[in-house]
Amino acid sequence: MLDRAKHERPGRRVSACRLFAIFCQESDLDSSLYRVDWIRQLISLLEDPEKPVHTAAWEALEAFVKSLPKDELEPLVVPLRRSIESAGPAGVLVPGFNKGVSPMVPIIIAGLTTGNNEQRENAAYAIADLVERTDEAAIKPSVVPFTGPLIRVATQATTYPPAVKTAILSALTSMLERIPIFVRPFFPQLQRTFVKSASDPASSSVRKKAAVGLGALMKNQPRVDPVITELVNTAKSSDDVVAGSLILALAKVVQNASQNMGDKAKEVCIELISDSFREEREESYHQSVGNLVSAMGAFPELLRPVID
């Protein structure tokens, strides 16, 4: 069946997928040795330009995943993610994903909620990869099942290593950049998650990814002044390393939402820039202030006294 699924003739690829779907529905034989092979093959067939082929592959994948015990899904997360990542470049829609991504959801959720750290990390990146390769209408039904577990894992700060949290923040940022309207109900939780992660003392990669995510979120928020005030106040009371990350987050917010800033928010940003010249600080701190100066370039009249 695997050989036939790779055949050069589309008709044989279709019949292989259909036969495999029947096998999954009817057979009690132990086929666990072939699970990874079929994950890789079916995901690659979802990229097939022939509609009958990627349709049959989608249906076979659905039958396959439904036939698996729920407590045996986690080991498939890493090969699934690698296969999705290989299914064309980010930003290019995969034909077979346009029917939806529901067959892959159980594997990803299992990895995210009960997998080990490597599986959680790959599950998060798999979500980002799917969002970047799937039509908006097709990804919509899976947004809520994905977003809730992502936020829950991200907010358990002491439990997971930086690589897992970075992957989760990447997935959430991809969703905000590609399908913001579908994650709107989660905006308050996402704001708290990104602000908290921007001051994570354990990892600069987590803080930087949170800064980017917060900027993407604020692009879709009409009220940005409270976040700006919170970031400024927290930065003032933090050590240079964490403060630098918070100022970077502030720069991303200003860069994406300068049109919604009030006068008081603009004023505290200028004060923060002016204060940064009063004493020598960590290089990363000064670089972040540089990013903030660049973002405040939208208000040249306010920057003029600093420059003078």
TrEMBL record:
SUPFAM superfamilies: ARM repeat (SSF48371). Residues 1-98 form the Stalled ribosome sensor GCN1-like HEAT repeats region domain. Pfam families: HEAT_GCN1 (PF23271). The keyword Repeat applies. GO terms for molecular function: protein kinase regulator activity. GO terms for biological process: cellular response to amino acid starvation; regulation of translation. GO terms for cellular component: cytosol. InterPro entries: ARM-like (IPR011989), ARM-type_fold (IPR016024), HEAT_GCN1 (IPR057546). Keywords: Repeat. This is Stalled ribosome sensor GCN1-like HEAT repeats region domain-containing protein.
